[in-house]
Write a structure and sequence with these properties.
CATH superfamily of the largest domain: Multidrug efflux transporter AcrB transmembrane domain
Helix content: 55-70%
Oligomer: single chain
Shape: elongated
Mean pLDDT: 81
Order of helices and strands: HEHEHEEHEHHEHHH
Strand content: 5-15%
CATH architecture of the largest domain: Up-down Bundle
CATH class of the largest domain: Mainly Alpha
Number of domains: 2
Low-confidence stretches: 300-315
CATH topology of the largest domain: Multidrug efflux transporter AcrB transmembrane fold
């Protein structure tokens, strides 16, 4: 098993020495992400912009998605998304919201039917109006905010309030940077990306809790150690686990991104980005915030001594 170690057991990387640099870089990225969100905005998908959903079933065996995209992409309906839905012969078609109201929405449905002819059966036709899309935006935002608030309460209950603030700071950092990268690259932002953000929150929280749990153990074990040295020790002790988890997760996500097809590419990209920034924030956001706020050596004990610039000591 020793051969499987990614990080040698005696590693002592002084992470906290770079905390100011890390916070400065993150602050710049957060401001840039917010600027892009309020100026460029997200490239909202049909789920949020409204549009038409048509479910069809081909009569002559499995559907040729490439042929369908080619035929429907040339009739002037804007963004047309086509994906396999369950059985290989079943296809889901999404058409963006048409200008001109309900009449043009119905006209777009008729154009699709004229293009595909009698080669398919129409199993479902739904129109997503602006009201529904607005509700989806609201509900998605509520879901993300509620998840972060639940994390705040959970960490507060399990550890102390200083730990909860550090964990929430890392989660907010991850969510904002994920939104920022989608604004920058103008990737489609739909309901699956909301699901990816919620998954990122869970992944980042899991990594942060592992680090915080080790910090709490060491706080009780090394009562006179400088807090900076103690945080460095805890980060190094959990570094092998952090890297191993991140690498194995990225291997799976990389395979999905390359071979999973266009339909889940946005979701997979969000997950890959989230794993990277989630791992980073556990080290350079959550832990420095904890150091800034200070902690008690024991629950109900005396506060930790005033922080000094940490310096790792080799033994």
């Amino acid at each position: 098993m020793q051969g499987l170690r990614f990080i040698p057991s005696g590693t002592r990387i002084p992470f906290t020495r770079f905390r100011k640099v890390g916070i400065a870089i993150s602050s710049i990225l957060i401001l840039a992400s917010l600027f892009l969100f309020f100026t460029v905005d997200l490239n909202y998908g049909i789920d949020f912009r409204g549009g038409t959903l048509i479910e069809i079933r081909t009569k002559d065996g499995p559907a040729d998605l490439g042929d369908l995209r080619s035929r429907l992409g040339g009739i002037g309906l804007g963004d047309v998304q086509i994906q396999e839905f369950g059985d290989p012969s079943e296809v889901l078609i999404r058409i963006e919201q048409q200008t001109g109201g309900e009449e043009n929405q119905q006209r777009s449905i008729q154009m699709v039917k004229e293009t595909l002819g009698d080669t398919v059966d129409y199993r479902r036709v739904e129109v997503v109006g602006p009201t529904v899309s607005g509700e989806l935006i609201r509900d998605g935002t509520i879901a993300v905010v509620a998840a972060i608030f639940a994390v705040l309460l959970y960490i507060w209950f399990r550890f102390e309030w200083q730990f909860s603030i550090g964990a929430v700071a890392a989660l907010v950092h991850d969510v904002i940077l994920t939104i920022g990268i989608f604004c920058l690259l103008q990737l489609e932002f739909n309901l699956s990306i909301i699901a990816a953000i919620l998954t990122i929150v869970g992944y980042s929280l899991n990594d942060t809790v592992v680090v915080f749990d080790r910090i709490r153990e060491n706080l009780r074990k090394f009562k006179k150690m400088e807090l900076g040295d103690l945080v460095d020790l805890s980060l190094n002790e959990t570094l092998s686990r952090t890297i191993l988890t991140s690498v194995t997760t990225l291997l799976a996500l990389g395979s999905l991104y390359i071979f999973g097809g266009q339909v889940i590419r946005g979701f997979t990209f969000a997950m890959i980005w989230g794993v990277v920034v989630g791992t980073y924030s556990s080290v350079f956001i959550a832990s420095p915030v904890l150091m800034l706020l200070g902690v008690n050596r024991d629950r109900g004990g005396s506060p930790a001594p005033k922080l000094k610039e940490p310096a790792l000591r080799r033994t």
